[in-house]
Write a structure and sequence with these properties.
Elements lengths: L1 H10 L8 H9 L5 H7 L18 H9 L3 H13 L15 H19 L3 H31 L4 E4 L2 E4 L17 E5 L6 E3 L7 E5 L9 H4 L17 H12 L3 E2 H8 L3 H13 L3 E6 L2 E6 L1 H8 L6
Parallel strand pairs: 3-5
Antiparallel strand pairs: 1-2, 4-5, 6-8, 7-8
């Protein structure tokens, strides 16, 4: 799903703020085969559902699911788009019968993933984890109304028992969940909410995740040193700072004052340690009202779980 949304953003003439550098970098190295994906997932409008999977699993798992999509499912998805007067490329009419075309599409998706998402995935996961911690705090403080109202106050409104979502022009109607629940999916690239009422295993609402960074992918895009250097994270392994990091890992979404109480230090000291950890890329911080909520990043988890070196 995130790759599908990112593919749309790549094709926008005016991408959302903060994605200009990412877009230029991604487009500069794309293989011509990516055009197949662009033709099926345009900048705006509908696209085949089998290309926007939301199940769990690795990127390899998802690519294999696309490659092994039953022919009947492909034909049904494409027929549904034709009924809605969506213009599809001529070659797509044979996608349900031609295994060669499906293999080419599979290869193009894999190339796009490696170029567009894979280099930035740790950063995206970190931002999504921080967003989930924020939503849990909103749910705890303000109930369902507080959480849903905080997703996007301009486009998502909770008017019990109805959730009103303003999406792209031309999409309107009532969607009945019929007890199936609604899966909330934070997305870095989604500029506006997106709802799929027929998704499997359940309907979902993708929304733009919360972050305060004007260039959210800058950290992931920073060049790495070409030669080994002394580990700068060793300075973080002092007893107090390690305790702060461990506390965040054990209880994602802890506030600065909660960290101070748990580690038995002053709020000012907890704030200082959190600042250093965040600058090193070990935690992410999201704001809920006037409260900073801290969540560990994959880099922070790797540091905590690294085996002790032996001399």
């Amino acid at each position: 799903m995130e790759l599908s949304i990112a593919v749309r953003v790549l094709q926008l003439r005016n991408p959302p703020p903060g994605f200009g550098a990412w877009r230029r970098q991604a487009l500069a190295g794309l293989d011509p085969s990516a055009r197949m994906v662009f033709e099926l997932i345009p900048a705006t409008g509908r696209s085949p559902a089998f290309l926007s999977l939301t199940q769990g699993g690795s990127p390899e798992d998802h690519l294999e699911l696309v490659r092994s999509t039953p022919r009947t499912r492909i034909r049904e998805d494409l027929a549904r788009l034709s009924e809605r007067q969506v213009r599809l490329p001529r070659w797509a009419q044979h996608l349900g019968e031609d295994q060669r075309l499906l293999r080419q599409l599979h290869g193009a998706l894999g190339h796009l993933h490696e170029r567009v998402l894979a280099p930035h995935w740790p950063r995206i996961e970190s931002l999504a984890s921080a967003d989930r911690a924020l939503r849990i705090r909103q749910l705890s403080d303000g109930g369902v109304h507080g959480m849903l109202s905080g997703l996007n106050s301009r486009r998502i409104r909770w008017n019990p028992p109805v959730l009103e979502v303003t999406i792209v022009p031309g999409f309107h109607g009532d969607l009945y969940l019929e007890g199936r629940g609604l899966l909330l999916i934070p997305s870095l690239f989604a500029p506006i909410p997106f709802v799929d009422p027929k998704a499997v295993p359940q309907p979902y609402l993708a929304y733009s995740l919360h972050h305060d960074d004007p260039d959210p992918l800058a950290l992931a895009s920073a060049p790495r040193a070409s030669s080994p250097a002394p580990n700068p994270l060793a300075a973080l392994l002092g007893r107090t700072r390690a305790a702060v990091l461990s506390s965040i890992a054990e209880h994602p979404g802890r506030s600065t004052s909660e960290l101070a109480a748990f580690v038995d230090i002053s709020p000012a000291s907890a704030s200082e340690h959190a600042t250093v950890l965040r600058a090193a890329g070990l935690i992410s911080t999201a704001r809920h009202r006037n409260t900073a909520l801290h969540t560990i990043t994959p880099t922070g988890s790797a540091l905590l779980n690294a085996p002790a070196a032996t001399g």
